[in-house]
Write a structure and sequence with these properties.
about 400 residues; Aspartate Aminotransferase, domain 1; 7-stranded mixed beta sheet; about 15% strand; binds pyridoxal-5'-phosphate
Length: about 400
C-alpha cells in the first residue's frame, strides 16, 4: 500500500520561503569548492576584514572567561554603549529603550512579534529585502509590498503608501540605504511618509543597517531626523554586520519605546536567550568607535567600477545606487528571449543560467519582488568585478 504520509510541518512554517540569497550563495560556494572558478556577486557580505581592535577585544574577553549568559537584552555596559551610539546618530533613548540582539534579522522578527496580531498588515516599499515578507508571515502578519519605480529613483511614494493602507495596516518597514536598490530616501520622501504614519497611527521599523554606506552628496536620514514627534511609534534597528563585516558574529542593536523593547526582551529570553556574549563585549569597541572611512571609499570605488561596466552593456538599464553595496539593473529587455534554445522567462531562470554557464552568481529580482531585475553585490575584488561583468556581457550576447 502506498499511503503518502501527511507533512509534519506546521502551516505557518510551510508558508515560509528560504532566503534566496543564502541558497544561491551556498550553491556558488559548493561550485567553488568543487574547483569551479565562480565569481560571486550574490552574498550581502563585505569582503573587508573585521577591524583588528574588535578581534583583539574578542580574544581578550574570551580568555578572561566572560562568555557567560547575560540578560536577553544584553549586558548593562553594552546597552550603555548602544545608547551612546544612538545618541551620536541623533536619537535619545533611555536605559529601558535599547537592547542588543543577534543581528538585525532577529531584531525585525522580535519587533514584529511584539507588535502584530494575526492578520495585521506589515507594509514595506518594494523592491524589498526578501526576508521582510517571510518574517512578517512567520509572526502571522500579512505582508503588503508597496511599489516604487526605477524612474522615480525607487523613492517610496507616500500617495501609493496611503492607497495601500487598510484598517488592518499596523507596521511600516523602512530601509534606507535600500537593499536591493541602493536608494537613499530623501528628506521630502521621509516627510511625506511621516504625514501618512501620523494620520494612520502606523508603527515604523527603520532598518538602518546600511546607514554608514552612502557614497554621494545625499545624507543618511532616519524618519526620526525629520519627524522627531514620531519617537513613540518608531523602532530603530541597526547591526555591525555590514559596517564592520561582523556578519557571522551576530550582533544587532535596537532603540524604541520602552513598552516594545520590554516585550522584545521577554520574547527573546524564552526563545534565543542573549546574543553571543563575546560578540556583545567586542561590540562595545565598535559602538564607541567610528566606521573606518577607507572601507566606505573602497566600496565606493567598486560601485563606480561596477556601474560603469554595467552601463556600457547595450539593453541593460542600470540606475546608479547611492548607498548600500548593490547594483540592481533591469533585465526586462532580455526576458522572454531565447538563450541557447531556452526561453528565459523569469529572473530566476536568468540567474540560474548565468551561474551554470558563465559561473557568475547573482540574486534574481524575484527574491526582492522585482521580477525584471537582478542584484549584483559589489563586495568582490575589482578584478573579479571586471571579469564577472565580462562574463555577464558574454551571456547577454547570446540572447536572441
Ligand atoms: C536590509 C537588511 N536588513 C537586515 C539584514 C540582516 O542583517 P544581520 O546580519 O544584522 O541580521 C540584511 C542582510 O543582508 C539586510 O540587507
Amino acid at each position: 500500500m502506498n499511503h503518502s504520509s501527511p507533512s509534519p510541518i506546521s502551516r505557518r512554517a510551510a508558508a515560509i520561503a528560504s532566503s534566496a540569497t543564502l541558497e544561491i550563495t551556498a550553491v556558488a560556494a559548493a561550485m567553488k569548492a568543487a574547483g569551479k572558478d565562480v565569481i560571486a556577486f550574490a552574498a550581502g557580505e563585505p569582503d573587508l576584514p573585521v577591524p583588528d581592535d574588535i578581534i583583539e577585544r574578542a580574544v581578550q574577553v574570551t580568555k578572561e572567561g566572560r562568555g557567560r549568559y547575560t540578560s536577553a537584552a544584553g549586558l548593562p555596559e553594552v546597552r550603555a554603549a548602544i545608547r551612546e551610539k544612538f545618541a551620536k546618530d541623533g536619537y535619545q533613548f533611555g536605559a529601558d529603550q535599547v537592547m542588543a540582539t543577534a543581528g538585525a534579522k532577529p531584531a525585525i522578527y522580535l519587533a514584529l512579534y511584539a507588535l502584530v496580531n494575526d492578520g495585521d498588515e506589515v507594509l514595506y516599499p518594494s523592491p524589498f529585502w526578501g526576508s521582510y515578507s517571510e518574517i512578517a508571515r512567520s509572526v502571522g502578519a500579512v505582508p503588503v509590498a508597496v511599489p516604487t519605480l526605477p524612474e522615480e529613483d525607487f523613492q517610496p511614494d507616500a500617495r501609493r503608501l496611503e492607497a495601500a493602507i487598510t484598517p488592518k495596516s499596523r507596521v511600516l518597514l523602512l530601509n534606507s540605504p535600500n537593499n536591493p536598490t541602493g536608494t537613499v530616501y530623501s528628506r521630502e520622501t521621509l516627510e511625506a511618509i511621516a504625514a501618512v504614519v501620523r494620520k494612520h497611527d502606523l508603527w515604523v521599523l527603520s532598518d538602518d543597517i546600511y546607514d554608514c554606506l552612502v557614497y554621494t552628496q545625499d545624507k543618511f536620514l532616519n524618519l526620526l531626523h525629520v519627524a522627531p514627534d514620531l519617537a513613540p511609534r518608531v523602532i530603530v534597528i541597526n547591526s555591525l554586520s555590514k559596517s564592520h563585516s561582523m556578519t557571522g558574529w551576530r550582533f544587532g542593536i535596537v532603540g524604541g519605546p520602552a513598552v516594545v523593547i520590554e516585550a522584545m526582551g521577554r520574547v527573546a529570553s524564552q526563545v534565543s536567550g542573549n546574543p553571543n556574549t563575546i560578540s556583545q563585549l567586542a561590540a562595545i569597541t565598535a559602538l564607541r568607535g567610528k566606521v573606518d572611512p577607507t572601507r566606505v571609499a573602497s566600496l565606493n570605488h567598486r560601485r563606480q567600477v561596477l556601474i560603469r561596466e554595467l552601463q556600457s552593456i547595450p539593453g541593460l538599464y542600470c540606475p546608479v545606487p547611492r548607498g548600500a553595496f548593490y547594483a540592481f539593473p533591469s533585465i526586462k529587455s532580455f526576458l522572454g528571449k531565447s538563450y541557447r534554445g531556452h526561453t528565459v522567462a523569469t529572473s530566476t531562470d536568468f540567474s540560474k543560467l548565468l551561474l551554470q554557464d558563465q559561473l557568475v552568481a547573482t540574486v534574481p529580482g524575484d527574491a526582492f519582488g522585482a521580477p525584471d531585475h537582478v542584484r549584483l553585490t559589489y563586495t568582490t575584488p575589482e578584478k573579479d568585478i571586471l571579469e564577472g561583468v565580462r562574463r555577464f556581457k558574454a551571456f547577454l550576447a547570446e540572447f536572441r
